[in-house]
Amino acid sequence: MKKFLLLLLLVSQTISAQFTDINIVKEIRTKDKGLVVSAHPLASEAGTKILKMGGNAFDAAVATQYALAVVYPQAGNIGGGGFLVGVKNNGEKFTLDYRETAPEKSSPNMYLDKSGKANTDLSQNGRLAVGIPGSVAGFYATLKHCKLPMQQLIQPAIDLAEQGFAITEKEAALLNSLQKEFAKNNFTKTVFNKEQGWKAGDLLIQKELAETLRRIQTDGLKGFYEGKTADFIVAEMKRGNGIITKNDLKNYKVAERKPLTFNYKGNEIVSMPLPSSGGILLAQMLKMSSFENLQNFQHNSPEAVQIMVEAERRAFADRAEFMGDPAFINDKTEMLISDDYLKNRWISFNPNKATPSSEVGKITPPTKESTETTHISIIDKEGNAVAVTTTLNGLYGSKVVVSGAGFFLNNEMDDFSIKPGVPNMFGAVGGEANKIEPGKRMLSSMTPTIVLKNNKPYLVVGTPGGTTIPTSVYQSIVNIIDYKLSPNLAVNSPKFHHQWLPETVDYEKGFPENTVKELEKKGYKSNYRPQIGRTEIIVIDEAGNLTAVADGRGDDSVGVE
Asked: In the structure, how many helices (H) and strands (E) does the chain have?
């Protein structure tokens, strides 16, 4: 365990590249400077470059997201969507929902065959899996909070795409593992296909993507949702069974939503409301675990983990039954996070044994959600804070690259309940709240979050990881507020996860064996995962000292102004 943590405390490594040296920095402590934490060092560098040019945290958020679309194509994107939570130094709080939406021609039964069986290959791979992309619209919606013009914010990404960058060993292995999938789902050879295979240090140059970014730079929103790029997207749809039209693209709108806020031990938590389930789940889990005075138990002890697992179980049961796009359902957020409701939910907690999942919710098959997402945490020297989580859903999304435009399209339609009304193997029926409907946003677990202390940013946090996102953010907040762990230990300590169904508790390798064994005695089933999440965190203490930590589970990196 100690060796595991020591390895994660390594500060940096350097790899040379054509565009720039890739300097992976895992932790920075500073004061009176801006910080950017993201999944790729070149993206973090793009954000900090903008801060140095006079931009604020929102400028840096836009530049970093564009850069991730180039250097982190497995999840960074312009062909997907995401959520942004912002807190300005004047106290203003806001969120932007640029989640993908279902095309006009979509329907609840679009992935079912004549016998009513769901074809998950259609919802996960190829053109029919694609939701209307929201990312570029989201970047433009962020612009009103920025100081610099979009033409300047997109330039670092154009340079990266045009000049290329050296890929790491991990990136080479990932690309090599999906060569057959890229070939199967594309009619023309893409820049991601390489006959002799990829190796560390190879240059990834993306000329078509550079041209697409230039069209956005020149023509703004119309440079993506209309004109040549829209033509490329629609043509790509017609090569297979895709249904996105020019009207779908032209009519896409970002939703500005009221942040979900609540108090936790004197801190104000600011997170994402529906159609992200993340904020609601976070509120439910933190409040329920506080009923048991969690801080009185040792970190990752059997008592503490049992309390947190049971809070996760009850929250995820509510997710399956109640949560979806608020424009299409009866939004019960206020009830779900109320103290009265949660105290009643907690009555069945028994410290001596596991609570059967059937006792806390109707056994409804939960929607499968991919772990391939990416998160950015940013703060500037003026005290503006941004948490952004974006995704293509699956690894490289639908695996479809828009021919002529050079970017991957999402497979976000798989985040809907693709077989509502169709019984599963247990005879239970899929959730109606998240069924497919035209114009609807699919339910998400993304949980970009900012914690305020005395009305000022204290934590900026988020992670990728599908349904493990809310539980990883939950654990990170508990690790810092309840257990007073350092930011590095809060991020890099082995995590656990439970989501109501299946009944198992997932643990990362290195998790305390005694805790696992003690919980098994109480009836908990165990499963091990290689990793859970890749959390990016910034912590600001009362003296104004900032500590940024990039997760040690990947090539994530911190950039400083």
From this structure: 20, 21
Mean pLDDT of 297-309: 98
On the question of pLDDT at 430 being above 50, the answer is no
For 446-512, give the DSSP string: ---EEEEETTEEEEEEE---TTHHHHHHHHHHHHHHTT---HHHHHHS--EE--SSSSPEEEETTS-
pLDDT of amino acid 350: 98
| Cβ contacts of 264 within 8 Å, gap of 6 or more | 286, 287, 290, 451, 477, 481
Q: Distance (Å, rounded) from C-alpha 220 to C-alpha 405?
A: 16
Residue whose token pair is 């102004």 = 561
Buried b (16+ CB within 10 A) or exposed e, 442-474: bbbbbbbbbbbbeeebbbbbbbbbbbbbbbbbb
SS3 of 8, please? helix
Q: Report the predicted TM-score, pTM, of the whole model to 2 decimal places.
A: 0.94
Residue 417 confidence (pLDDT): 84
Q: Does residue 162 contact residue 379 with C-beta atoms inside 8 Å?
A: no
Which tokens belong to 262? 């609540």
Q: Which of 20, 364, 371, 373 is catalytic?
A: 373
Return the axis-axis angle of helices 468-481 and 302-322, rounded to nearest 10°.
140
> What is the residue-averaged pLDDT of the chain?
92
Lowest mean pLDDT among 107-116, 178-187, 256-265: 107-116
In which residue are the tokens 């999402």 written?
A: 410
Structure tokens at 402: 């828009």
Output phi, psi for 412, to 5 deg: -70, -15
373 is catalytic: yes
- The residues that bridge with 389 in the sheet, in sequence order, are 83, 375
